[in-house]
Write a sequence for this structure.
């Protein structure tokens, strides 16, 4: 332009037309020396249409100039042209494609990064919607659009992804169950981890973070399912770790109690279903714990003092008395069945025969009840008939006594749980002997009526706690006192034969216990158990109700058993020594097994003896009913003397009376 301008100036002929051409060229030159806006380019083209008159341009000069201006137009409008060409607002009318597209992305997870482009395309529909005139506000239309797209995304991608990840984690953790074929060469493999490397997708006023969405879903699912079945905590913990390793998800720790269910089986639940509880759980006397007999899960539930204490803290100490009342109702029903069994002619006649036999032979047997007699009784009962699952009447009677013992064990645990709860509540009181009266202190300070009321409430709570902690109700004594008169009355004379059925019962129990313990080592563990101290508790309780501890002790039953097994073990050991010289392998093996079986039987009897001795302590086995009554009378007389202020009471009394 500058060259042509000089050429026009150098021409000396003046005319208005030439001046216009020169002005147009100057204008075009000045305008091109600036930003390439639409207006400037328009003025340049107008100026050149004037400037090209009068043949100021040669052909070889004009064509390159037009070409350059064309390129300038193109590069100036490039962004606008690209925007128009890439405008995807037409997708609004073809939204049906979106679900199909998402299904395809889910199937071919490798292309997951393209989701960003799809959402950019969907955003292009927004400007057009903002010009909507058929609604009061275009916001309504935008909201519906947003909701529809998110629902489709959740249904066709996010929810499917969550379910698939959860399924994969479950199957990986439970590979030992061999649920289905997971060989990737046969069933194929989809790597869903690609979705978790995506940056959050922006859509409207939100960011869609696929990784965070799936993590939240798994956290929520694992937490909820762990609360429902706390024994599965370990499985879900493994699944969390696997999700982190395999998919890079940052899982949140559930912080739920592991290994033990802190609340345990609720006291109210046990109380309402005590008949189910005593048959499904086994009692352990020494650890004071109940263990589930069988379970469909991988773990067995246990109930201990801490669980009971937590339940009492939840429901209040009033629940303890209600529980004992429920236990009393349960025991009444069980004792009715107990009485019926003892009254049965087959049983009663055998027991009377055994009592007569023992009286006749006790001097010859060193006052010991013969083992053979108990064994004969046990076998004789089987002849009376057995149930479809192979149980004799004595087996069922043993189970009845075990259930009664379990109920007593539960009462014991309730009392221990109550004391545990009180002690944990009262540990904040500095001195139990010297508790200040808060109400008086508040009145002295002249504080408000509400504060005085609160102080009165606090005093009442503290006095309740100290009283409960100091006393602790003797529930066993109550349950003995309530049934004992009926058991010992003349109309229930048939129950007086109970002490003679204890030896065959113990024999039956030991056989059952050994078979349960042997099942622990087998693959099919149905019926396996390692403890059942409910039986010892039940026997001790019933002997106390009948006041028959002395009668049972007179049988010297456990001594008789010990002597019998020790004698047999020695005989086998002696035979082993003889056979070891003869080098007979098979016979030696048989004798080893016999020796081992006898030792196991002796050990089981010893354990039962220890459990029974421990259980008897709860029921004050050292005193007969007559001695207890005498002691009760003496206590009453002393309290009467003390209340009358008898002066003789203050003088030193005879040490024996004391």
């Amino acid at each position: 332009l500058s060259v042509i301008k000089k050429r026009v100036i150098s021409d000396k002929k003046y005319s208005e037309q030439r001046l216009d051409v020169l002005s147009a060229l100057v204008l075009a030159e000045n305008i091109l020396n600036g930003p390439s806006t639409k207006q400037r380019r328009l003025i340049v083209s107008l100026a050149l249409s004037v400037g090209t008159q009068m043949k100021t341009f040669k052909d070889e000069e004009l064509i390159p100039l037009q070409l350059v201006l064309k390129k300038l137009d193109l590069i100036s409008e490039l962004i606008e042209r690209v925007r128009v060409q890439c405008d995807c607002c037409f997708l609004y009318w073809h939204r049906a494609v979106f679900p199909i597209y998402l299904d395809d992305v889910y199937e071919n997870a490798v292309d997951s990064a393209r989701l960003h482009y799809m959402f950019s395309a969907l955003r292009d529909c927004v400007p057009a919607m903002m010009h909507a005139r058929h609604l009061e506000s275009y916001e309504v239309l935008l909201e519906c659009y947003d909701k529809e797209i998110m629902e489709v995304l959740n249904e066709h991608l996010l929810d499917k992804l969550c379910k698939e990840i959860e399924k994969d984690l479950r199957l990986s953790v439970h590979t030992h169950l061999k649920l289905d074929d997971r060989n990737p060469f046969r069933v194929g493999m989809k790597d869903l981890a690609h979705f978790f490397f995506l940056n959050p997708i922006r859509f409207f006023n939100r960011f869609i973070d696929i990784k965070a969405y799936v993590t939240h879903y798994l956290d929520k699912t694992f937490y909820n399912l762990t609360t429902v079945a706390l024994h599965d905590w370990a499985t879900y913990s493994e699944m969390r770790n696997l999700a982190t390793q395999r998919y890079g998800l940052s899982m949140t720790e559930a912080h739920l109690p592991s290994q033990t269910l802190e609340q345990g089986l609720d006291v109210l639940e046990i109380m309402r279903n005590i008949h189910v509880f005593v048959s499904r759980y086994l009692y352990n006397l020494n650890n004071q714990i109940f263990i589930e007999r069988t379970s469909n899960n991988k773990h067995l539930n246990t109930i201990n003092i801490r669980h009971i204490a937590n339940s009492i803290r939840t429901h209040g100490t009033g629940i303890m008395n209600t529980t004992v009342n429920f236990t009393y109702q349960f025991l009444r029903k069980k004792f009715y069945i107990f009485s019926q069994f003892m009254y049965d002619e087959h049983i009663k006649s055998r027991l009377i025969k055994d009592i007569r036999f023992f009286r006749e032979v006790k001097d010859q047997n060193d006052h010991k009840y013969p083992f053979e007699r108990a064994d004969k009784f046990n076998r004789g009962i089987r002849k009376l008939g057995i149930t479809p699952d192979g149980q004799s009447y004595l087996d069922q009677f043993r189970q009845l006594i075990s259930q009664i013992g379990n109920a007593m064990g539960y009462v014991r645990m309730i009392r221990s749980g109550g004391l545990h709860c009180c002690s944990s509540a009262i540990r904040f009181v500095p001195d139990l002997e010297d508790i200040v009266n808060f109400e008086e202190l508040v009145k002295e300070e002249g504080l408000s009526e509400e504060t005085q009321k609160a102080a009165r409430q606090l005093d009442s709570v503290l006095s309740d706690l100290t009283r409960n902690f100091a006393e602790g109700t003797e529930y066993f004594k109550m349950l003995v006192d309530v049934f004992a008169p009926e058991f010992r009355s003349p109309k229930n004379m048939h129950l007086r034969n109970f002490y003679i059925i204890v030896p065959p019962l113990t024999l039956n129990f030991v056989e059952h216990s050994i078979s349960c313990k042997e099942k622990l080592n087998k693959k099919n563990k149905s019926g396996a158990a390692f403890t059942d101290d409910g039986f010892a508790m039940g026997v001790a309780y019933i002997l106390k109700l009948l006041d028959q501890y002395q009668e049972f002790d007179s049988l010297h039953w456990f001594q008789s058993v010990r002597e019998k097994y020790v004698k047999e073990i020695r005989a086998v050991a002696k035979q082993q020594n003889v056979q070891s010289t003869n080098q007979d392998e098979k016979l030696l093996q048989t004798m080893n097994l016999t020796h081992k079986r006898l030792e196991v039987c002796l050990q089981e009897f010893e354990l039962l003896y220890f459990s029974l001795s421990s259980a008897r302590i709860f029921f004050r086995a050292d005193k007969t009913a007559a001695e207890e009554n005498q002691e009760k009378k003496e206590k009453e007389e002393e309290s009467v003397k003390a209340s009358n202020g008898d002066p003789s009471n203050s003088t030193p009394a005879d040490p024996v009376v004391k």
About this structure: The longest strand covers residues 281-284.
